[in-house]
Write a structure and sequence with these properties.
- The complex is a heterotrimer of chains A (268), B (280) and C (270).
- Chain A has 268 residues and is mainly α.
- Chain A has 11 helices and 2 strands, in the order αααααββαααααα.
- Chain A has helices spanning 18-21, 24-39, 44-60, 65-71, 76-89, 105-131, 134-145, 155-185, 195-201, 203-226, 245-267; strands at residues 94-98, 101-104.
- Chain A is flat.
- The termini of chain A are far apart.
- Chain C is an alpha/beta fold.
- Classes of the chains: A mainly alpha (268), B alpha/beta (280), C alpha/beta (270).
- The A-C interface holds A 12, 14, 133-135, 163-164, 166-167, 170-171, 174, 215-216, 219-220, 222-230, 234-240 and C 47, 50, 52, 74, 77-78, 81-82, 84, 86, 88-95, 97-98, 101-111, 114-115, 118, 132, 134-136, 150-151, 154.
């Protein structure tokens, strides 16, 4: 009866696979390409092709397919909601009617398409976080955004913020869980009454959480300072990013696959 | 009337790769007015046990009964159990939230639908029990000293007048005077017929405070009995997951040498007895 | 290593100073235990050593460098590393070795040297097998050992531990103390802040703080020979100290015998 479970979030799973070894920049750019491709997908054949590619990717990155699906669980509601909206709000040939609600033939198609599109988006994006450690991910982003630093974009700070946020997500989930339990033990009733009452009931959870977050932030800032942190200048990396031949191949491969899929979709 | 834990087992995340057996077959009885210590290392399952006592966790198998009410019974019974068994988590000052000490104290009683007059009376009474002066009532709980915060948290749990109090490492991070004061106050609760369950990894503290000690290791009971019999047993054979307090190690060494000294935590008593032995 | 001359410190907005007129010097290779009750100013003093706080009055010198000079900060923090109380609040990265690398990366060291330092330090604290483990999955004791590894990766001359064992269980505490003993043997200067007297039995010198002032300083034998002061300092005398003192009073134990089980048994059971 754990109230919150951080393991359902798409978290890094260390493994030794070709996908894990790719440069994070390559993975970020590839995912952007893939997502663009998925946005364009329309035809059932394309869906099947993308599905097969997903299975292949899971195999290739040594992440069990079950884990890939698990990572997408938190967004199931969003997917169902989007699909539902399309199911009921698309105009066309009516198949079924009940009061103000009507389901059309086009609606069913749209619901399927949007639902699958959204699921695929999440599943493919999930590979990025599943196969890339938070540190690599932020290094990759920092490096990709570095050209914009000239225009005042704080690339390093953003990346550092991301590293820390990812590091503290599990800790804060545990902390929230503990405070929740503590207040439940004091008789707090968190799941009865209207929305307003429930929101009020969460104050005893939120206030301590804020206090702890601020305390942690202060402690962490001090600990970082003590370890000679003074921003991005003069900092080196233990594993500097190195763009390898395989990255170029992977990038080109992704481009070709996306192009084929899109063309196939248009042609069908 | 007592808390009865019978062959309690608890498994976290059953059926997943993260499956862990936190407790496998634990029995325990806590009577009102008794101090029971649960001792074990990190990961021994002592905190899991603590949360079972007031139905924050439910058994995978086995049973937990509080004054005859099973924690797996209906939801109304479950609330009854939470009311009867107060649970104070480790570092409880991390759950303070209210604008004033009074509000903090009133949180529990209001959740259990006490009337306002009752709340004021019970608040002042419990604060006195924990050595907190009435003048603190309008102050912000965040302004109190570390020791006061800790005592306020315990008082806020006691304010609903539970029959049992479960304390997870109540003296963690406190210095000697603060610890002594708090333990003295808690000892007073036992006189008020409250059953105390003291979860700790400090064997010396448990030996000094408790009337009964349960030692857990990796979710299993490795010892359950009085402090006296635990000391006897510790001298006989090492108990997994426990290290001998230095003074008992000394006693053990002295006895091996042939001095007839008692197993005691009391340094002065030991010195006196040893002196007698050495003079004869 | 350290020289504090008439150091006072008052937190911004506070009326009473946290430290007042502290005179203290610590030599290379010493293991100094800083003890005192909560609120005695121990942690404040610890943060002065590493220039996280700058004295409001007086001078704090680290290896001859004054901490109030901005230009020295970098050099001082390289030489003096800190380990804090809450292990969770000092780990920056999600993977063990990446966290150890954080300090050396800040120094701008080349990748090969960082790898070397990370591996050496993880071995020193016995976490080399957890190299790729996620940091959140470590136990409290392991997290604290990781924090020590992170501090050591700076290759400091001195390690300051601010109540680093307060949140650990006996096993975790013993693990940390073992590492400290090891480091001391290798010549590391250690400043250990604690309120538990049973943890300081390896210290070469003890400094007692009370109400922001140095209440007493000397060696362990001297500390345990002090009378009636423990209560005043807010410290608890370990049972073995009480025991050996009683026997020393009655001349059954030599005055020089320290209150350790081994030493006591050697003296009492010849």
């Amino acid at each position: 009866m754990k109230f919150l479970n951080h393991l359902t979030l798409g978290q890094y799973i260390p493994a030794d696979s070709p996908v894990h070894r790719l440069d994070p920049r390559c993975k970020i750019l590839s995912v952007v390409l893939l997502l663009a491709g998925i946005f364009m997908m329309k035809h059932p054949v394309a869906f099947i092709a993308w599905g097969i590619f997903l299975l292949f990717l899971s195999r290739f990155s040594r992440i069990p397919f079950r884990v890939v699906i698990q990572g997408a669980r938190p967004v199931i509601i969003l997917v169902l909601f989007t699909a539902g909206i399309h199911l009921f709000l698309t105009r066309g040939i009516t198949l079924w009617e009940w009061g103000p609600l009507s389901v059309t033939k086009e609606g069913v198609g749209m619901a399927f398409r949007m639902g699958l599109r959204l699921s695929f988006l999440v599943l493919f994006a999930g590979f990025l976080t599943l196969t890339t450690s938070p540190m690599e991910l932020s290094d990759g982003l920092e490096s990709l955004f570095r050209p914009f630093q000239r225009f005042g974009f704080p690339a390093h700070e953003m990346a550092m913020m991301m590293t820390i946020a990812l590091r503290f997500i599990p800790t804060l989930f545990d902390e929230t869980d503990r405070i929740l339990r503590a207040q439940l033990a004091r008789g707090a009733d968190l799941d009865h009454g209207g929305i307003l009452r429930r929101m009020k009931a969460f104050i005893p959870v939120l206030v301590p959480l804020f206090v702890i977050v601020f305390q942690r932030a202060e402690d962490l800032a001090q600990a970082m300072e003590a370890r000679c942190y003074r921003g991005g200048t003069g900092r080196s990396r233990m594993n500097p990013l190195r763009w390898k031949r395989t990255d170029t191949f992977a990038m080109a491969g992704t481009l070709v696959i996306v192009a084929i899929f899109v063309l196939m979709d248009l042609g069908a | 009337m007592s808390i009865r834990v019978a062959s309690l087992r608890h498994i976290y995340h059953p059926g997943t790769p993260l499956e862990t057996k936190a407790l496998s077959g634990v029995d325990l009885t806590v009577d009102p007015g008794k101090w029971v210590a649960v001792v074990g290392q990190t990961g021994s399952g002592k905190s899991t046990l603590a949360q079972h006592l007031n139905a924050l966790l439910l058994p995978t198998s086995g049973s937990v009964e509080v004054d005859g009410i099973s924690t797996t019974a209906a939801a109304s019974a479950l609330r009854m159990v939470r009311r009867k068994v107060g649970l104070v988590f480790q570092y409880p000052e991390h759950q303070l939230f209210a604008e004033s000490v009074l509000e903090e104290m009133a949180f529990g009683p209001r959740n259990w639908k006490f009337n306002e007059e009752d709340i004021r009376e019970t608040t002042i009474r419990t604060m006195k029990l924990l050595g907190l002066p009435e003048e603190l009532l309008p102050r912000s709980p965040f302004q109190l000293s570390g020791g006061q915060k800790r005592r306020l948290c315990i008082a806020s749990v006691l304010a609903v007048r539970p029959d049992y109090l479960v304390l997870d490492e109540p003296t963690a991070g406190m210095d000697a005077p603060g610890r002594r004061e708090l333990l003295g106050l808690l000892k007073g609760l036992v006189k008020e017929r409250i059953g105390v369950v003291h979860i700790t990894h400090d064997l010396e503290l448990a030996l000094a405070m408790a009337e009964q000690i349960l030692v857990l290791e990796k979710g299993k009971t490795v010892f359950c009995g009085t402090p006296g019999s635990l000391m006897d047993e510790l001298i006989e054979r090492p108990i997994r997951g426990l290290c001998l307090p230095p003074i008992l190690e000394l006693v053990s060494g002295l006895r091996d040498y042939g001095y007839n000294v008692p197993f005691t935590l009391d340094a002065v008593e030991l010195a006196d007895r040893l002196e007698k032995e050495m003079r004869t | 290593m350290f020289a504090l001359r008439g150091v006072s410190f008052t937190y911004p907005g506070a009326v009473t100073p946290a430290l007042g007129g502290v005179e203290l010097s610590i030599r290379n290779g010493e293991w100094v235990a800083l003890i005192g009750a909560n609120g005695s100013g121990k942690s404040t003093l610890a943060k002065l050593f590493n220039a996280l706080l700058i004295p409001t009055r007086g001078d704090c010198l680290v290896c001859g460098l004054k901490t109030d000079n901005e230009d020295n900060l970098w050099e001082i923090r390289r030489r003096v590393s800190m380990v804090f109380q809450n292990p969770d609040n000092q780990i920056v990265a999600s993977v063990v070795e990446e966290d150890v690398a954080f300090g050396p990366e800040n120094l701008g060291l080349p990748s090969s040297e960082i790898h070397e330092r990370v591996f050496d330090c993880l071995c020193l604290v016995g976490l080399e097998e957890k190299r790729r483990a996620p940091t959140y999955a470590l136990s409290g004791g392991q997290k604290q050992r990781l924090a020590i590894a992170g501090a050591l990766a700076m290759q400091p001359r001195c390690l300051v531990l601010d109540e680093a064992t307060a949140m650990l269980d006996p096993q975790g505490r013993e693990d940390v103390l073992k590492i400290l003993r090891d480091l001391h043997k290798r010549g590391m200067t250690l400043v250990q802040i604690t309120h538990r007297l049973d943890e300081i039995l390896d210290a070469t010198r003890v400094v007692v703080l009370g109400k922001g002032k140095i209440a007493w300083a000397g060696d362990l034998a001297g500390l345990f020979a002090m009378r009636d002061c423990f209560n005043e300092w807010g410290l608890e005398m370990p049972p073995l100290v009480r025991f050996s003192r009683k026997l020393q009073e009655r001349n059954l134990l030599p005055k020089a015998c320290l209150p350790f089980v081994k030493e006591l048994l050697e003296n009492l059971c010849p």
